[in-house]
């Protein structure tokens, strides 16, 4: 692998994301030689840490995520880290940061390349982007920026943020990260769809009855009540992760695998995304909040959550496209906190076909993303000793050894940023469309809230969410496959 010269500046260098994901991933990329001699990382945050303290943190982060490491390697890697205490609103701090970046660039021969990573509270993204621009923090080589989610709170704020970022960066250099796009099974959707005639040729409204996407989480909001209460499940999970999955499932075949072609196929599809009317929101969407149990708080009693909150910890909904291979096919989705288990899965439900055996069950293609990684297709045969149809699953599954080789989503996506491959990042025009959809739903809910009659289903924790979600289907023969 080639050794990429770069100075990386992480805003939020003392934070949880940097510790849990970025430092271990960077270490793996260092071990592979993608970044090696000619890189330095500047971690910034408000806390008054020293370079040495940051290096200890980096080393701890690696030990926490790796069973066996060569201590000399960890030490050598950590020596590339520098810390600068930084108040994002203080212009002078950007001047110091720029100077430090230049010094390190000289020391490490980083060729003027800069990578900025926004890993802190999203309310600061705009301020940081503005000062990167007005204090000329960009270098003379490549300049890339990675932006964590949420990218805006609605379309208007996303547009504003985009304006602030594009003042210094070209669209091609903006990497809006969605860690779902780094997941192994999400990256398997395209090859599964496009390389097998059995699957490719049934990918239409003629054979697919509906598609169901479930992103279930066992955990509640935990310590993130403050953020979550301003967000909710729709913005936190649907606006990004679920819509990216939907797009991969519904887009036309790209003409090749280049980033441009993939984004072009996605954009072509998204033009035909149906934005729901308030009546459709009422009919096709369910929002809910989890109740408490003997040992856990109800959502409204969680720390930093408004006791009268109308923020949803669960949402189920439906969407459709007017164009693309599965135009008109209903795509149902649901996500929520405090489900019975952590499970991310996609069910492609095939239509019944007339056959001499009478009414057989519908067949499904299921992609399990988390916690297991597998794809299975139901196959029908005959029962052994009585008349009737027997169903078995044909499974594509990874061995333990293969699973151990699957890189973490962050490692994969950081790798892509270094090699300048934006295939698995969100293009602005996609994001804009997702926000248009989300805004339509949020506006309808907001009106219900203002009218004093919000329908927010209260659901028992550690089950399957509110039963109201069973009623969003178009026909009585449809139901959730994963129950
Ligand atoms: C994040 C959300 O984007 O995704 C969290 O902000 C959520 O609320 C998380 O828990 C889920 O990711 P994963 O990879 O655990 O399914």
Report the strand count. 15
As a whole number of angstroms, the C-alpha radius of gyration is 24 Å
* Number of H/I helices: 16
Oligomeric state? single chain
Classify the secondary structure makeup into a structural class: alpha/beta
- Give the domain tally: 2
CATH topology heading of the largest domain: Dihydrodipicolinate Reductase, domain 2
Bound ligands: 6-O-phosphono-beta-D-glucopyranose
End-to-end Cα distance: 45 Å
Q: Portion of residues in helices?
A: 25-40%
Query: What's the CATH class label of the largest domain?
Result: Alpha Beta
CATH architecture of the largest domain: 2-Layer Sandwich
Strand order of the main beta sheet, please? 14-13-12-11-7-10-9-8-15
Based on CA inertia axes, which overall geometry fits? globular
Strand % is 15-25%
Report what the structure shows.
This protein is α/β, with parallel strands linked by helices and 483 residues long. The chain folds into two domains: 6-176, Rossmann fold; 181-472, 2-Layer Sandwich (Dihydrodipicolinate Reductase, domain 2), CATH 3.30.360. It is built from 16 helices and 15 strands. Strands 14-13-12-11-7-10-9-8-15 form a nine-stranded mixed beta sheet. The chain has a six-stranded parallel beta sheet with strand order 3-2-1-4-5-6. Helix 5 (125-134) links the parallel strand 4 (114-118) and strand 5 (143-147). Helix 13 crosses helix 16. The protein is globular, with a radius of gyration of 24 Å. 6-O-phosphono-beta-D-glucopyranose binds at residues 149, 179, 217, 236, 344, 370.
């Amino acid at each position: 692998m080639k050794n990429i010269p770069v100075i990386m500046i992480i805003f939020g260098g003392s934070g949880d994301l940097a510790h849990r994901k970025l430092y271990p991933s960077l270490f793996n990329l260092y071990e592979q030689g993608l970044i090696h001699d000619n890189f330095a990382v500047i971690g910034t945050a408000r806390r008054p840490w020293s370079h040495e303290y940051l290096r200890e943190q980096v080393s701890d982060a690696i030990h926490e995520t790796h069973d066996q490491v060569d201590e000399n390697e960890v030490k050598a890697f950590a020596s590339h880290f520098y810390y600068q205490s930084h108040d994002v609103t203080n212009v002078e701090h950007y001047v110091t940061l720029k100077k430090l970046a230049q010094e390190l660039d000289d020391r490490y021969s980083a060729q003027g390349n800069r990578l900025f990573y926004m890993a802190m509270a999203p309310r600061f993204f705009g301020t940081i982007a503005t000062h990167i621009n007005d204090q000329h923090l960009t270098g003379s080589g490549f300049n890339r920026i990675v932006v964590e989610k949420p990218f805006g709170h609605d379309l208007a704020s996303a547009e504003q943020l985009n304006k602030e970022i594009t003042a210094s960066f070209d669209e091609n250099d903006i990497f809006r990260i969605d860690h779902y796009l780094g997941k192994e099974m999400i990256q398997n959707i395209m090859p599964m769809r496009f390389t097998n005639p059995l699957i490719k040729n049934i990918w239409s409204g003629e054979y697919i009855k509906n598609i169901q996407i479930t992103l279930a989480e066992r955990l509640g909001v935990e310590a993130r009540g403050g953020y979550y209460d301003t967000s909710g499940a729709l913005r936190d999970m649907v606006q990004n992760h679920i819509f990216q999955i939907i797009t991969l499932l519904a887009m036309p075949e790209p003409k090749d695998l280049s980033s441009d072609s993939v984004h072009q196929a996605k954009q072509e599809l998204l033009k035909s995304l149906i934005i729901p009317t308030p009546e459709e929101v009422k009919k096709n969407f369910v929002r809910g909040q989890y109740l408490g149990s003997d040992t856990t708080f109800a959502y409204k009693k969680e720390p930093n959550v408004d006791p009268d909150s109308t923020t949803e910890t669960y949402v189920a909904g439906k969407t459709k496209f007017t164009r693309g291979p599965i135009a008109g096919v209903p795509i149902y989705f649901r996500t929520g906190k405090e489900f019975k288990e952590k499970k991310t899965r996609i069910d492609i439900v095939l239509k019944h076909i007339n056959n001499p055996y009478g009414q057989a069950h519908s067949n499904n293609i299921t992609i399990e993303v988390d916690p297991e990684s597998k794809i299975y297709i139901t196959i029908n045969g005959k029962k052994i000793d009585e008349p009737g149809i027997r169903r078995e699953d044909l499974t594509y599954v990874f061995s333990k050894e293969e699973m151990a080789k699957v890189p973490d989503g962050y490692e994969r996506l950081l790798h892509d940023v270094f090699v300048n491959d934006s295939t698995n990042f969100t293009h602005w025009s996609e994001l804009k469309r997702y926000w248009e959809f989300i805004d339509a739903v949020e506006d309808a809910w907001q009106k219900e809230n203002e009218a004093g009659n919000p329908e927010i289903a209260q659901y028992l924790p550690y089950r399957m969410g509110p039963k109201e979600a069973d009623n969003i289907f178009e026909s009585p023969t449809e139901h959730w496959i994963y129950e």
